[in-house]
Amino acid sequence: MSTALSTQIRLAKRPVGWPTHEDFEIAEVTYDSPAAGEVRVRNEFVSVDPYMRGRMNDVRSYVAPYALGETILGGAIGRVVESNAPELAVGTLVSHQHGWSDVVQAPAATFRPAPELDGVPSSVRLHILGMTGLTAYVGLTAIAGMKPGDTVFVSGAAGAVGTAVGQIAKLLGAGRVIGSAGSAEKVALLTEKYGYDAAFNYKDGDVRAQLAAAAPEGIDVFFDNVGGDHLEAALDAFNDGGRAALCGAIAEYNTTGRVPGPDNMANIITRGLTLTGFTLANYLGVAPEFYDKMGGWFAAGQIAYDETIVDGIENTVDAFLNMMRGANTGKMLVRVAPADNA
Predict the structure, then answer these.
(1) β-pairing verdict for 151-154 and 219-224
(2) Is residue 238 a contact partner of residue 153, using CB atoms and an 8 Å limit?
(3) What percent of the chain lies above the pLDDT cut of 70?
(4) Separation of alpha carbons 136 and 23, rounded Å
């Protein structure tokens, strides 16, 4: 057994508006040998996600806010490098929620073994084969009740969840899938790689007008990662009985004042619409069904994915800020460099 130095990214103060580097701090912690029932894990990849911005605020939400002076918690995947727990041997690949650090030492029960696939990077367990893919599946099936033939609109379609939603919708029989993204390059990627039937750049003009042009016969399902003008556009475009799965509202995460609501809320009544917000923790029972289907799709080569990777745990804040500005295509990840002291 040995000691290990862990570099951790912590919340130094609560951001006001857009986060800055001054809202975070880097700390180093020395771990002694793992106690009975503990393991030491060297992370390979760390996830940065939009929901983390909400947890930086001290407000009521579906999960407790991050504590000041504590490590930012979230998804990560790594390998056991020392073990004092018989259920997790050295070399086991594990996923966990200990977040932004290069080395983690904690009870074995807080880690979950992650099956390895030949030729597939461990990082996919943090997105398309993990919670990201499950989020997309839950939103389409358990929340929106997507049916074969439905027209589906996805906001933030070039992000990790959005790219998963488009593919899963098509595999489940959607008649037409439409996405919004923030650049011409991302729009092309949606139609050329991810199977979207149509896509538009929301920066090119009025979202309502662009969605109406892309979906002249209306939409049946809306998977929302953005909120704001995208939600207004969907409310205009919905056919009678339309359903929305409200997954995120990234357009509002860094605002400092109250955001006006949609001006067409009456459509919810007159068209018999259903808008349902959801968080994944309440739908984990869907996971076995998802993993069974996704495993088959992935093995058959029917699933594509993109990763935007930033190297070095010390650059995690940069990765997070860039992701919030839409600089990523697909999943934004931090790759943790190997170290000799783990």
Answers:
(1) parallel
(2) no
(3) 98
(4) 31
CATH of 4-126+306-335 among 3.40.50.720, 3.40.50.10190, 3.90.180.10, 3.30.590.10: 3.90.180.10
Q: Do 45 and 67 contact (CB within 8 A), yes or no?
A: no
**Contact partners, residue 243, CB within 8 Å, separation at least 6:** 143, 144, 145, 146, 220, 221, 222, 273, 274, 275, 276
Tell me the average pLDDT across 117-143: 95
How does pLDDT run across 134-186, given as a tens digit for each residue? 999 999 999 999 999 999 999 999 999 999 999 999 999 999 999 999 999 99
Kindly state the tokens that stand for 181: 């993204």
C-alpha span between 13 and 16 (Å, rounded) = 9
pLDDT digits (tens, 9 = 90+) for 265-302: 999 999 999 999 999 989 999 999 999 999 999 999 99
Q: In terms of C-beta distances under 8 Å and separation of at least 24 residues, what long-range contacts does 53-62 make, across chains too?
A: 53/15, 53/19, 53/253, 53/254, 53/324, 54/253, 56/11, 56/14, 56/15, 56/19, 56/23, 57/14, 57/15, 58/14, 62/279, 62/281
What pTM was computed for the model?
0.89
Contact in structure between 214 and 139 (CB atoms under 8 Å): no
Domain with CATH 3.90.180.10 in the chain: 4-126+306-335
Please name which of 274, 230, 273, 221 lies closest in space to residue 249, comparing C-alpha atoms.
Answer: 230
The CA-atom distances, in angstroms, between 232 and each of 22, 149, 227 are 35, 23, 8
How far apart (Å, rounded) are the C-alpha atoms in residues 96 and 9?
16
3-state secondary structure 214-231: HCCCCEEEEEECCCCHHH
Nearest 5°: CA angle at 77, between 288 and 18? Answer: 100
How many CB atoms are closer than 10 A to CB 68?
Answer: 13
Between CA 8 and CA 16, with CA 11 as vertex, the angle to 5 degrees is 150
Residue ranges of E strands in 108-207: 111-113, 151-154, 176-181, 198-201
Please state which of the four CATH numbers 3.30.450.40, 1.10.730.10, 1.10.3720.10, 3.40.50.720 is assigned to the domain occupying 131-299: 3.40.50.720
